[in-house]
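Box 3.1. Reading complex inputs
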Amino acid sequence: MSALIETNNLIKTYGKGEAAFTALKGLSLEIKEGETVAIVGKSGSGKSTLMHLLALLDTPTTGSVSIDGKNATSLKRRQVDQLRNNVFGFVFQQFFLNANDTVLNNVILPLKIAGVGVRERNKRGLEVLRAVDMEDKAKNKASDLSGGQKQRVCIARALINEPKIIFADEPTGNLDSNTGGKIEDLLFNLNREKGITIIFVTHDDELAARCQRRIYIKDGEIEKENK
Amino acid sequence: MNYRDIILTANGNLRKSKLRTFLTISAIFIGAFTLMMTSGVGYGLRSYVDQQVAGVGAEDALFITMARSQENPLSSDVKEYDPNKKADLSFGQLQALQPMDLNRIKETEHIKSIQPMYSVEPLYITAGQKKYVTTLSQALDGINQAMLSGRMVNEKAREYEVTLPPSYVNGLGFANEQDAVGKKVTFAFKNATGEQFAKDATVVGVQQKSLLNANAMSGNTAFVEDAFNKSTAGLPTFQKDRYLYAHAKFDTSISDVQLKDLKTKLKTMGYDAQTLDDQLGLIKNVINGITSFLTIFAGIALLAATFGIVNTLLMAVQERTREIGLMKALGMSRHKIFTLFSIEAILLGFWGSLAALIAANIIGPIANSAASKTIFKDFDGLHLLSFPAVQMIMIMLLIMAISFIAATLPARRASRLDPIEALRYE
């Protein structure tokens, strides 16, 4: 299996001069297609910074991130936007659903951004909602859902563009352990059935234990890596 | 995101915060409505003037007076007497034209003919019963006058002819406009020595009321000239032959530039020459002055509305920080985020000005009929407010453009939002 994501000596420094703070201190790693990877670390360890760089939401101070063999650091902003839209899916701890919109409208947002027509995106929206067992709630307002249901909708939204990689930032952090477990099952099933690479950012050891690889981050460096 | 989705999303966003949207649209509405009313009044008045002038003819007419003195009447300079300077025979501020002047003008290139306009001041007019104060003006050859009945005076006729403004018909004892035609009226004048004399003239028609003749009788040259000569009889020649105006005809085949040169030439000779258009230009200037003044108020209202738009959008950006961050994380470009907020502003402008357009078209006709029954009763055919489609669309586009400009600051802020910051959970 080839490397889907590859980083080379990533350094990220915030601020300048004496106030400068280096969040990542030269970090190199490889993530292969179809892997489930947990990036584990305490808050302030740099794990969120790492995820932002991997997800191309931020640019490194030095070093590079390659996606599918292409150096993303040299891409134009519009190409990066397209890459995020086509190749990535995002699952957030806080869901970030538009509360006043319907479930379906929330789910189809990435396709709307991509410029897909109404009929096509609604069709695919219902398909992904079926995949997460939420088809019957398509017309409900997002604010009427429970936490677990919201996270399912969030996953459906991440799935709709048929991504290669899903970034899941503390996906179970806001859920009770029973519901959280079901959400984890759902994500790991997607990995098994569709071969989607999933990168978890978490400090939950139980979730990390289910992943094929665990990368422990401490003070901006890889502390250890387990397989 | 395609443009259809952007517009629908923008409109949906506006609908989500109904009260705020309503208030912002109201502010735009006030500005747009004021601007539409202002331009409606301007257009209404201007087209009234144009309509009054249309069909008047007289494309070849130049109205000539002595050039207005450039001296400041408040100046306290004392001037030495100059025996060669022409006697100051003035009509108020304005010097009089004399036969010598008419000859000079007539010899100017492109001038075909010149005719003095005799100023006579009748004491009264009567048809045998009551006496009324009146003014008498000299009808001009080649200038058309719309008539309610009868015909215009014949300039060539030696018989004395006169037309009446409609307001005199009943007072003079005629049953109606038709009845007045062919009847005799008598004008009384006073001569230089203070003696009264009377002259009869035949009513050949009743004029339609218009901006040009106001409420004056119109007499043919034979009548007015004779009345003038008789009332100035006994005066020395230099006091007698003095005219406020002269009516010249110029060669209409000359170009606008040549016409301008002609006027400049007359000006250097000491005369002011105006075409009918120039004279009405004065009226139009007054109208333009009033409307520009009103437009300033509309502009101030719009400026206030603009700040309202900026404020509304800044609040929207603040409120939707998370949503914007999410859209950016999901791959929406800066450019499209900017467009989304700009379109929201343009839609605010669109709805506000559309509401104003509808209101203007409801209130306009009501105001028109109220105005023509009261303050503008005497102005036949005046539509105080006119809303021509092109102008209204221009105003709507203008307001949408202003809204777009107002949106640039908030839209820029939204487009530059850092998705990481926006999605950080506190």
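In summary: The first helix of chain A runs from residue 47 to 54.
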